[in-house]
Amino acid sequence: MTGIVPTQLSLLVLWIAVWELAGLMEYANHASVWYPPSALSIAAFLLLGQRAILPITLAIVAVTFQTATQYALPHTTLQLIEAGLLNAAAHILPYWLTGFVIRYQRIRYEHHFTLVILTVLVITPLMTLAATGLTMLSLWFTDMLPFSDIADTWLPFWIGDLTGALALGPMFLGVISAVTSSSLHLLDDPVLRPQQLMSRHFSFRILISVSCILAAMLLASFFNNSHAVFAIFFLVIPHMWIAITEPPFSNATSVAIASLLIAILIPALGLMEHALVYQFAICVVAANSLFGLAIPTLLQHNRDLRQIVATDSLTGVASRERLVRKAMAQLNRTKVQGIPLSAVVFDIDHFKQINDQLGHSEGDKALQQVTIAAQLCLRPCDLLGRFGGDEFVAILPGANQSQAEEISERIRSRVTQLMTSGGGHLSASFGVAQSVTDDTFNSLFERADSALYRAKQAGRNQVMLAPVPEQIIS
Q1: Which of 92, 144, 354, 431 falls 20 to 30 Å from 254 in CA-CA distance?
Q2: Where in the chain is the domain with CATH 3.30.70.270?
Q3: Higher-confidence residue: 352 or 27?
Q4: Neighbouring residues of 223: CB distance < 8 A, sequence distance ≥ 6
Q5: Average pLDDT, rounded, for the chain
Q6: Separation of alpha carbons 128 and 151, rounded Å
Q7: Residue 320 to residues 39, 167, 170, 317, 355, Cα–Cα distance (Å)
Q8: Among the listed residues 157, 178, 173, 182, the one whose alpha carbon sits nearest the alpha carbon of residue 40
């Protein structure tokens, strides 16, 4: 409870501050180039939920008084309080619903961040339009806006809200999440990681973005041509570059910087008559960058999937698929280089009895212990994989059959020092085969596996060598 009041107070102050900032870029009555409070409200409701209602309500009531002063409205204090509360309801209802829907989709599609981004891009225009309509009606109902002005005001009002929400929403999410832990587990991926360091090239990429904005807008101002203003859409290119190379929060920050610069330059360069074009440009850049936010997540998910496929979950060694793929590559490499390669196939003796008598958890423990023992005896260049059940395969590039036998003996000796919970010692049997010029993985494995079978037949807990073919690579 102690952390709620400071958070709400900070939100109240921040909301009024960004409202003042929007007022500096106002180009029509009640309409700004972009409207940061819409972004802040969505981010606040998304992260803080109902706790954001009170500070945003108080902020809107406060700015209602300031608006009345700005437009010299003859309202009493009570009328302004009523107008402020009605304006707050018109603003809060759609943006609270926006936060609720995005939060719901984030939970529902936890591992499908692109669907969450798509939800944001669909619901944000709809809810900013709803907020615009409700606010217009509220202003008219409270005599703060003539009904005749609504037709000329609603479009710039809506686009201003939409531009602010798309361009600044992700950054406000990061800012709020940096000072509160509220619901972060629901939105951990990926924009809410402001602690991630930007790359050392971030400043250079921002400089390119700024240069693109300056060039496009100075060009439009110099030629005073309605066609020249569309050069701003080239801004998509550097921001897609930023989206795929920078951490998500840096991406969001870059869009916020670009949108702020555009909003400042529109009145400064006398481009107010083209404000709508620049607003749409900001929306396009922001939407592309939002999809760019999903790229790090998709890449990480792909890496995770590759790791799952490539690694045996129980022992941590290579999976069968990765083992076969790597072994085939090593075979081709050793043939070209003319160096030997050996394969060692081994399994745990009486493994079925361990499972049956001591339980599968003890069997799993035995597999893990044997894996560690083998890894301690293998060289850094060797590859160990679990082929299936209790059977392991080690690929030893550069090792002839004699060297592979020595390594196998070291593993066998170390395994015999391991014990089960029942007090019995573990042991393993080994089959060793050296590759020949026309070997495939299957043929090499079959010879080593046959040697393992003979080791089992000969009494277990020993290393058996496969016959050496004439075409051996020595």
Answers
A1: 92
A2: 320-465
A3: 352
A4: none
A5: 88
A6: 17
A7: 50, 47, 42, 9, 22
A8: 173
Non-local CB neighbours of 60 within 8 Å, separated by 6+ positions:
15, 84, 87, 88, 91, 92
Residue 379: count of CB within 10 angstroms of its CB: 12
For residue 190, whether the previous peptide bond is cis, meaning omega lies within 30 degrees of 0, is: yes
Task: Give the pair of three-digit tokens for residue 452.
Answer: 């393992």
3-state SS, residue 195: coil
The model carries a pTM of: 0.67
| Dihedrals phi, psi of 392, to nearest 5 degrees | -120, 155
pLDDT tens, residue by residue, 426-463: 999 999 999 998 889 999 999 999 999 999 999 999 99
Reference 131, options 59, 35, 219; nearest CA is 35
Say if strands 428-434 and 463-465 run parallel, antiparallel, or are unpaired.
parallel
CATH 3.30.300.160 correct for 320-465 = no
Give how far Cα 135 sits from Cα of 118, 128, 164, 415, 440, Å.
Answer: 26, 10, 16, 76, 73
Task: Give CA–CA dist 323/345, Å, rounded.
Answer: 12
CA distance 261 to 205: 15
Report which of 273, 59, 286, 267 is spatially closest to residue 191, judged by C-alpha positions. 286
CA distance 40 to 12: 11
* Alpha-helical segments (H) within 25-112: 36-48, 53-70, 77-108
Q: What is the SS3 assignment for 154? A: helix
Confidence of residue 197 (pLDDT cuts 50, 70, 90): low
State the DSSP H helix or E strand holding residue 297, giving kind and residue range, or none if neither. Answer: helix 275-310
What are residue 436's DSSP bridge partners? Answer: 472
What local confidence, expressed as pLDDT, does residue 191 receive? Answer: 44
For 434, the enclosing helix (H) or strand (E) is: strand 428-434
| Mean pLDDT in residue range 253-279 | 92
Q: What residues have CB less than 8 Å from 299, skipping those under 6 apart?
A: none
d(CA 238, CA 241): 5
Strand partners, 432: 344, 465
Pair of tokens at residue 405: 């036998």
pLDDT (0 to 100) of residue 81: 95
